[in-house]
Amino acid sequence: MLGAYNGVILDIDLTNERIEEKKLNESAAKLFVGGKGLGTYYLAKELRPKADPLGPDNIFILATGPLTGTSAPSSGRWAVVTKSPLTEIYLDSQVGGFFGAYLKHAGYDLVLIKGKANSPVYIYIDKEHVEIVDASDLWGKGCFETERILKEKHGKDTSVGSIGPAGERMVKFATITFDRGRQTGRGGTGAVWGSKNLKAIVVKSAKAEIEYAYPEKFREAVKKAVKKINSHPFIPIRKLYGTPIWVDRVSSAGLLPTRNFQNGSFENVDKICAATMRLEIVERDMACFGCPVPCWKYSKVRDGKYAGTEVIGPEYETIALLGSNCGISSIEAIAYANALADDLGLDTISTGVVIGWAMECYEKGIIRKEDTGNIELTFGNEEAWIEMIKKIAYREEVGDILAEGVWRASKKIGKGSENFAPHVKGMEIPGYDPRGSFGMALAYATSDRGACHQRAWTVKMETYGMLGARFSYENRAKIVKEIQDERAVCFSLVLCDFMPLDPPDFVEMLNAATGFNYTMDEYLKVGERIWNLARIFSIREKGISRKDDYLPPRFYEEILPSTGYHIDKNEFNRMLDEYYKLRGWDENGTPTKEKLKELQLDEFMSFI
Fold it and tell me: What residues contact residue 370 under an 8 Å CB cut-off, 6+ apart?
């Protein structure tokens, strides 16, 4: 087998309680690498067209990469891939922690989960055996208690991923919580597990037995990468503050979501910024498997009404969407809400967006007090905000509508609320107002999973003047396309997007580990191949086209007070045309047959 791979896929059918080991397709590994890439390949190959995302036919894939679980820095990363119940299109999510490394060390490159169990179950995986175990006694419990019980049963040297009440009730943006503080995030991954009656997966740690194609070359490449990381000037700041370092910087730049994206600067940002968080609640720094940068923050609220709250976080996105976007001015309250959402199994980005939108609806009289269970759902009301998180997770009253996501909720409630519902393709917009970063407008619109900041993050380049004039549409299409391709292959290695490493560093480690002989162009072509396969998958599943590569009306029609700009629709369309041309797609956003052939995607031609 290729170096750094196990060469084994674990195929589990919950309906028939069948567990099989299959050989990894080496040709596919060379074309798609691993993680996001191989997960996308197997989803496209094996999922029945137009399958119900919450039906037994949907496939859920857990995918490590060739560098997962190795000595490469940040090698704790891995990916999940499935069809999203929130957007009904392609979905992948990148995860940290320890689960991916343990899965790789247990002997598996990918796990494919199919079917639906007759009653609640969990899956136990170690190097010696795999079994499907009854989980009836765990159903209804939160993620934290579920993890505690399973670790007591199987040992502390395990990694646990589980869903909470939100996943069990198939909230469309339910997530899966791994290692207490790492989540699969966007798109409803937890709902897919809930639809399969899958409560949890437990993986036992094992001694790593990864064989490299060129061990000495790999050690040298890793040594160089670690030295580069440790000498980078931003790393001490990243270690000290983590992702919240961006809270006050983004607010100062005028694009921090505030009160449902009605503004981009939050007047109380000093109460929720990284410095305040570090001073008031951070207890210690933590890191994922194999990472030299302990950027996650273990936090504990020491006093006040939220005293005793313990959480890994909050991260920037949680502070932005559950915080300023809902008018919340307390880092202690945000920490409490973060812990609550993690335990219930809710994506904090989507939860913050849908509640912020509901708050604006309430203040405009579109949602009334009788709809909320007598809750005054106004911006800044902490008690109402916390109750709404619970109502969404348990699908109570208006929470049942909000649990469908902001796109469906706005369609159901109507009365003009669709115009200010922040989403792209049904996925809630994350923590950067695109009227403050035109590159992000295009990145959101063209992201393969709906609005996403991870596929191409242009905020720093634009606000720091690295792309010329900040409020310009020039060169954005090229940079967004290039970053999307590069991130797609990085998410297939899988390494962390926070590492200050460049493609040459990745190529050197990948080639030495696997025995591949990628040039830089060939490496980036892998990312382009993955991106195009995800696109045509969504075309097959939902007919995605140019009409879907757009932002909600608010961003075109309303000037953002903090910047004085809105998105010019004509300029945006010109930028989108340029993007399609660079991608080799037609004017409707469909990859041409020539492009698919160039990318060796011939077997998927029937998707378009």
Answer: none
Q: State which H helix or E strand residue 299 sits in.
A: strand 296-300
- Residues 380, 329 contacting (CB under 8 angstroms): yes
Length of the chain: 608
The partner residues of 132 in beta bridges, in order of sequence, read: 123
| Cis before 494 (ω within 30) | yes
| E-only strand ranges, 78-204 | 78-83, 90-95, 110-114, 121-125, 130-134, 158-162, 177-178, 182-183, 198-204
Q: Residue 205: phi, psi to the nearest 5?
A: -65, 145
- Exposed, middle or buried: residue 363 (CB in 10 Å: 0-12, 13-18, 19+)? middle
Identify the CA nearest to 65 among candidates 491, 571, 608: 491
Per-residue pLDDT tens for 173-222? 999 999 999 999 899 999 999 999 999 999 999 998 899 999 999 999 99
What are the distances in angstroms from CA 225 to CA 95, 218, 400, 501, 601? Answer: 21, 11, 48, 7, 32
Residue 280 parent element (H or E): helix 274-280
Q: Rounded to an integer, what is the distance from CA 586 to the centroid of its chain?
A: 28
Q: How many CB atoms lie within 10 A of CB 7?
A: 16
Question: How many angstroms separate the CA atoms of 601 and 122, rounded?
Answer: 36
| pLDDT tens by residue, 253-278 | 999 999 999 999 999 999 999 999 99
Residue 146 backbone dihedrals phi, psi, to 5 degrees: -60, -45
In 84-236, which ranges are E strands?
Answer: 90-95, 110-114, 121-125, 130-134, 158-162, 177-178, 182-183, 198-204
Tokens of residue 587, six digits: 């004017």
Residue 74 and residue 289: Cα distance in Å, rounded?
7
Predicted TM-score of the model (pTM): 0.97
